[in-house]
Amino acid sequence: MHNTIIDREIGAIVGNILADYKENRSIDKLDLFRQPQKDVIIEVLQKLIRIIYPGYFRDGSRKFYNLENDYSVQIEDAVFCLNKQIARALPYSERFAGKSPEAPDVAGEAEKLTVAFFRRLPAIREYAEGDLEAFYDGDPAAKFREEIILCYPGAYAITVYRVAHELFKLEIPLIPRIMTEHAHWQTGIDIHPGATIGRNFFIDHGTGIVIGETTLIGDNVKIYQGVTLGALSTKGGQKLRGKRRHPTIEDDVVIYAGASILGGETVIGKGSVIGSNAFITKPIAPGTRVSIKNQEMTIKGIDGKTPMEISKTDLEQDDAWCWII
């Protein structure tokens, strides 16, 4: 057997790392059996997606010829799996800080919260139906509603948000963020579970959208790719926790690609249209059209000469100008 460098050094390497674990750093978490399990929470999320959209996403591990029995098993499975993760998450709250997930008061509260969440699932499904219709009505590229459910990243991100938001309202730690950040990684759409979003919410394309924790969005709002609904400044760090930092978007607003709307005092009034690449930090009155006009464009050929004539009117946009893909 060869006496390699690794053979000679492996003992010291392992010993050094194990010794470093005793430094009690914030990144150390050695109690594997009491913390929420990220992979299991994502599995629970997928179970919930199957329950919200019955018939669209199968659980390949089971085969039932009676659909009612099939979904009864799926619902019960999701209830028990989520309950266990909620019990593991509750010790991260102030009320149960430092307690074991198996403590009677923790376990009892986890069951109450689990039941409260699943009682809200019909309401989540009602919101999901409204979002689906908003997608179908708003996107001429959508040929079937099934296409939206099965293919559209925006529809997936909104559904995950709807689930996570209900858990957030129940003040369950960690689990809502794990769910929405999973959707973020999957879709490029970053919606904080604490945001409040009304009915019939439509995201077109979606990549690069950011919706912050204290954002308020009304009904029938449309948002295109690259939109940021963010904080005007986060220099205050933890001192800003719990304060309104993000904008309010009232009913029937359309926000086109690349627009940034920032600040807790910023309100976009009902029925307004925000054009692409707008940067807004002040309130906008209802029914307003905001646009970026007369951007300078230069076109030159390889020889440095202009290959075509462009008149001033070619570069002018009307008040509702925006980029739509």
Walk me through the structure.
The chain is α/β, with parallel strands linked by helices. It folds into 2 domains: 28-190, serine acetyltransferase, domain 1 (Orthogonal Bundle), CATH 1.10.3130; 195-325, Hexapeptide repeat proteins (UDP N-Acetylglucosamine Acyltransferase, domain 1). Helices cover 39% and strands 10% of the residues. It has 8 helices and 14 strands. The strands form 3 sheets. Strands 1-4-7-10-13 form a 5-stranded parallel β-sheet. A 5-stranded parallel β-sheet has the order 3-6-9-12-14. Strands 2-5-8-11 form a 4-stranded parallel β-sheet, with no helix packed on it. Helix 7 (153-169) packs antiparallel against helix 8. The relative contact order is 0.07. The model is unreliable at 319-325 (pLDDT under 50).
Structure in a nutshell:
Helix content is 39%, strand content 10%. The chain is of the alpha/beta class and 325 residues long. The strands form 3 sheets. The chain has a 5-stranded parallel sheet. The protein has a 5-stranded parallel sheet with strand order 3-6-9-12-14. A 4-stranded parallel sheet has the order 2-5-8-11, with no helix packed on it.
